[in-house]
Specification:
By secondary structure, this protein is α+β, with helices and mostly antiparallel strands. Helix content is 42%, strand content 18%. α1 (42-60) packs across α4 (124-141) and α2 (93-114) runs antiparallel to α16 (340-361).
Length: 497
């Protein structure tokens, strides 16, 4: 399989000679500001519906609760990740790793099938830039080619109102974004409380707001061209049969000059259907000319398709001069839906999904770990018991507080703490506290004794965990006699004094 003909150049014929590096750079290295023209059409209408649904989903996910937790909450300080009713902890490393690999493989698979459909249709950068911030820019400053038509645009207040609306929306987006990492209750305290009571929270909100403002107000499309590496990876993820936005060179060339009147075009010499109107260039949000082939800057938004289809209607030509197609189809070869990478990706995804389901089904309402406590390994007490330090760690995966009990089995007379062994763990919390384990000294042979720690909880939960209790080595009767003789010696010494 050969990769698609990806190029990083983006030359156009609209008076701008493209940089060999980025479409947003002029020849002298200065920033080329893009103000793409909006091209209504079927793809723009579909993308707008998808965008507003995604925005609603983005705002809803951290607010809607399932089993007592938000649908998505990545609580990094508490090391808990609540995802669609399931709670993941650092002990779920395998599950999180499999889930992350599945996400990347899904992106690779969709790219092999449909190119950069994620970038043009679902990426948050594209969704908010093209359907929130740029519409506001057109509202307050006028659409490209039709600027300075009203009082708002000519008075200078339009730009001020645009920046104010940008700041307000960035402030709201910052809070929604932080709601994925901070509980909504805590975030509400940050919003309505005094900044002096939570200076760190205030700083985080201010920083994220400023980052949003910088991104959508200044950096804009350069996120896709400079910061995001996905465009540079697409050449190795595509093949000749991937569906991407393409210009039909065989049908469009040689181009007809846009300075020629349309009625003359119909009776003039034979030319291609492209009239060189540059509508596909002026409407591109990254400023490229799709007629030069697939380029790194292309995000697959299909604005050039809508623009070209409108021109084809006016010139009474069939639509589709620019369309979603594959390199193989454009060259006249037969399109193949079944290719090695298209079959391999879903096969690996199915295997990982099965592994994820098996591991996930094996998780219970709680995770229990028994660790040896810090300090000396044991302490021989005067009442004939040997004390070992335990550290019982219980992760409560349920949405309600749960009561657990801990007891010892395998040794008569052994106990944990005062013998009750009652533990209460709040919902979604991690309980990790030290407990003393008492074992009769006579039960310890050769310096150790194997016991079982039994942890019981709600819903017939039970874990039987082996543990090795440590103690004095050697025969305990000889040790008792030696200690008795040492005591008598000390008594004699005190009487002599």
């Amino acid at each position: 399989m050969k990769p698609a003909d990806v190029s990083i150049s983006s030359a156009s014929d609209d008076g701008f000679k493209a940089s060999s590096v980025l479409s947003t750079l002029n020849e002298d290295g200065s920033r080329r500001w893009l103000t793409p023209r909006l091209s209504p059409g079927r793809f723009l209408h579909g993308r707008r519906i998808v965008a507003y649904l995604l925005i609603a989903l983005f705002v809803t996910l951290p607010l809607v609760r399932l089993h007592g937790f938000p649908l998505v909450l990545l609580d990094i300080p508490a090391r808990r990740f609540h995802i669609f009713g399931r709670t993941f902890y650092p002990t779920d490393t395998l599950l999180l790793a499999v889930l992350l690999v599945m996400v990347f493989l899904t992106i690779f698979w969709l790219t092999a099938l449909f190119g950069r459909v994620w970038c043009g249709w679902a990426c948050p950068q594209t969704v908010y830039m093209e359907f929130v911030f740029r519409p506001l820019e057109r509202l307050f400053e006028g659409a490209p080619g039709r600027r300075a038509k009203g009082w708002l645009q000519t008075s200078g207040y339009g730009k001020i109102l645009k920046l104010a609306s940008y700041l307000l929306i960035s402030f709201g987006l910052a809070h929604v974004f932080l709601a994925y990492f901070v509980s909504w209750d805590l975030l509400s305290q940050w919003v309505f409380g005094s900044p002096w009571k939570h200076p760190l929270g205030f700083f985080v909100v201010a920083f994220v707001t400023a980052a949003m403002m910088f991104n959508f107000g200044y950096f804009r499309e350069q996120v896709c061209l400079v910061a995001c590496p996905y465009g540079r990876f697409q050449s190795v993820m595509l093949d000749r049969h991937s569906i991407i936005v393409r210009y039909d060179r065989g049908r469009g060339e040689p181009r007809r000059g846009s300075t020629v009147a349309l009625p003359i075009l119909e009776s003039g010499p034979k030319h291609g259907d492209c009239i060189d109107c540059h509508m596909c260039v002026t409407t591109c949000p990254t400023g490229i000319d799709i007629r030069n082939g697939l380029q790194m800057e292309c995000i697959g938004c299909a604005q050039c398709i809508d623009a070209c289809d409108a021109v084809m209607e006016k010139t009474h030509k069939p639509k589709g001069l620019i369309r979603y197609s594959s390199q193989a189809a454009m060259s006249g070869a037969k399109f193949k839906i079944l290719r090695p990478r298209v079959v391999l990706y879903p096969a690996v995804l199915a295997a990982l999904a099965g592994l994820f389901t098996i591991v996930l089904s094996g998780t219970s309402i709680a995770d229990v770990t028994i660790l040896r406590g810090p300090g000396q390994p044991f302490t021989a007490l005067a009442d004939g018991l040997v004390e070992n330090n335990l550290r019982i760690k219980i992760i409560n995966r349920t949405a309600a507080a749960a009561d657990f009990t801990a007891e010892v089995q395998g040794v008569e007379g052994a106990r944990i703490g005062d013998g009750s062994g009652k533990l209460r763990v709040d919902a979604g919390q991690i309980y990790a506290e030290p407990f003393p384990l008492f074992v009769p000294r006579g039960e310890i042979k050769h310096g150790k004794r194997d016991v079982f720690i039994i942890i019981r909880g709600p819903e017939q939960f039970e874990r039987r965990i082996p543990f090795t209790a440590l103690g004095p080595a050697g025969d305990h009767k000889q040790e008792e006699e030696s200690e008795h003789k040492d005591g008598e010696t000390r008594e004699h010494e005190r009487s002599d004094h």
